[in-house]
């Protein structure tokens, strides 16, 4: 064997270490010619490889010159060492020659179980192992008094039919395990059971309470009609739509009919009052159409811009320009807008391929005055300044952005700005504007078109408008 692998208390001096295994020498021998010392086993293994030289100085050696070194062995055996079970918690220290005697009785040493169960157990825990853990120990069940070995007892525990246990449904009952199945399936008030009507699971002791509320529990019709039993959850529907004895209102109630009768008389009433019902429905439809028209008008007013400024986005510009060039979409119109909440109603129109003198070369832009709901409260003719803008869509932080701005003051004599006739809303009226507002070339060469969209802005100077 090589040198001692135990943990020594003090650092081992080099003279005590084998040059081959670098451990404290076991059974040290000395080569008398060079006085080098080795573990007997280490040197024998070295020489067994066919090399007959000293491992340190490589001088040739003779077996006859190798002798045991009892003095060195005595020194090594007197070194103070820890127990080999030191990592497991043993605090013993002593001379190396006392180590084996200590380890034979060390409580931290492991040994095979004497019952041959296959376990290795520390000496200090052997008694507990033999009494409580060993699979080969003999054990008597406290409930049925039968003998088992440890392995069989582990299987028997928790299944002994003679053990007294509480009901697993927590009903409070206690019984021998052999009676548990009979109890949990037939006697236990907490046993699981299904409702006969809704098939849901309940504890047996609350089933009766559930039946008082079960949606599928059959009950009789309170009107005593010919339907004998109805599931509780369907009773309301039965009374409302099916029960022939239930008092019901005429289906033309919303049209004004106030007749009530049992459901089985309803068909006769409908036949007798057919003409009256048709007349009532006609009046109801007429009234509802007027209400819908008024609501649509109110919703339309709420969605119209009333800030005096319109920002009009013309999307798909190139597609619409091509349509205008093909005489398919010559004029496009903006959403109407108001100068203020109760003000003038205006609308822009644009000819993307031009109009009049601007055709095929310019974008033409016009504004018209539309009939509004509050025209009778406003001053006429319309005479407030209007500004048209084509917005530059370049970098918003750049100082080179250049919007196209045109401002004009309506001439009171122009017919375009007189009060429009609400009874003669001529949608073809062109309005006032500019046939050559901006050339196609200028739009293309600058940042007015971006993402195939053009932004046109119209602003009315409302500072002089008298709000009614």
UniProtKB/TrEMBL annotation:
Which terms in the Gene Ontology molecular function aspect does this entry carry?
tumor necrosis factor receptor binding; ubiquitin protein ligase binding; zinc ion binding
Q: Name one GO cellular component term.
A: cytoplasm
Residues in domain RING-type? Answer: 18-58
- Keywords, sorted A to Z: Cytoplasm, Metal-binding, Repeat, Zinc, Zinc-finger
Q: Name one Pfam family in it.
A: zf-C3HC4
Which residue ranges does the record assign to the TRAF-type domain? 101-154, 156-208, 209-266
The organism sits in which domain of life? Eukaryota
Query: Boundaries of each MATH domain copy?
Result: 307-460
What Gene3D superfamilies does this protein's entry cite? Apoptosis, Tumor Necrosis Factor Receptor Associated Protein 2, Chain A, Zinc/RING finger domain, C3HC4 (zinc finger)
Instruction: Name the PANTHER family for this protein.
Output: TNF RECEPTOR ASSOCIATED FACTOR (PTHR10131), TNF RECEPTOR-ASSOCIATED FACTOR 4 (PTHR10131:SF94)
The name on file for this protein is: ZF(TRAF/RING)-2 zinc finger protein
Please give the organism. Answer: Phallusia mammillata
Q: Which gene encodes it?
A: Traf4
């Amino acid at each position: 064997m090589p040198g001692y692998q135990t943990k020594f208390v003090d650092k081992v001096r080099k003279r005590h270490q084998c040059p081959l295994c670098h451990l404290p020498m076991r059974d040290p021998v000395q080569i008398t010619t060079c006085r080098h010392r080795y573990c007997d086993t280490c040197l024998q293994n070295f020489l067994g490889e066919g090399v007959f030289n000293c491992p340190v100085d490589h001088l040739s050696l003779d077996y006859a010159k190798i002798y045991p070194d009892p003095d060195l062995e005595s020194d090594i055996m007197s070194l103070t060492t820890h127990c080999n079970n030191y990592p497991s918690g043993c605090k013993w220290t002593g001379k190396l020659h006392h180590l084996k005697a200590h380890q034979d009785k060390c409580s931290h040493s492991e040994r095979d179980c004497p019952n041959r169960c296959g376990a290795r157990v520390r000496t200090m825990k052997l008694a507990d192992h033999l009494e409580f853990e060993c699979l080969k120990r003999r054990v008597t069940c406290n409930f049925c008094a039968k003998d088992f070995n440890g392995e069989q007892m582990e299987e028997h525990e928790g299944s002994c039919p003679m053990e007294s246990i509480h009901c697993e449904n927590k009903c409070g009952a206690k019984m021998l395990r052999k009676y548990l199945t009979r109890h949990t399936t037939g006697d236990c008030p907490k046993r699981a059971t299904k409702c006969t009507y809704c098939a849901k699971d309940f504890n047996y002791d609350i089933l009766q309470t559930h039946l008082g509320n079960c949606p599928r529990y059959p009950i009789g019709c309170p009107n005593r009609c010919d339907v004998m039993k109805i599931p509780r959850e369907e009773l309301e529907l039965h009374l409302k739509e099916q029960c022939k004895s239930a008092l019901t209102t005429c289906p033309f109630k919303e049209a004004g009919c106030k007749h009530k009768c049992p459901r089985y008389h309803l068909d006769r009433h409908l036949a007798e009052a057919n003409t009256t019902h048709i007349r009532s429905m006609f009046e109801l439809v007429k009234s509802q159409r007027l209400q819908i028209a008024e609501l649509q008008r109110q919703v339309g007013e709420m969605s119209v811009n009333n800030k005096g400024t319109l920002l009009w986005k013309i999307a798909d510009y190139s597609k619409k320009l091509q349509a205008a060039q093909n005489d398919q979409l010559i004029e496009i119109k903006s959403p109407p807008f108001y100068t203020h909440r109760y003000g003038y109603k205006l609308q822009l129109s644009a000819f993307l391929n031009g109009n009049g003198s601007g055709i095929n070369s310019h974008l033409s832009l016009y504004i018209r005055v539309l009939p509004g709901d509050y025209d009778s409260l406003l001053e006429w003719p319309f005479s407030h300044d209007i500004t048209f803008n084509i917005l530059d869509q370049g970098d918003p932080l750049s100082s080179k952005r250049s919007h196209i701005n045109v401002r004009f003051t309506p001439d009171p004599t122009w017919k375009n700005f007189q009060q429009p006739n609400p009874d003669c809303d001529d949608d073809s009226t062109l309005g006032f504007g500019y046939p050559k507002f901006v050339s196609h070339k200028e739009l293309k060469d600058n940042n007015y078109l971006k993402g195939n969209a053009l932004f046109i802005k119209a602003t009315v100077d409302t500072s002089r408008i008298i709000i009614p």
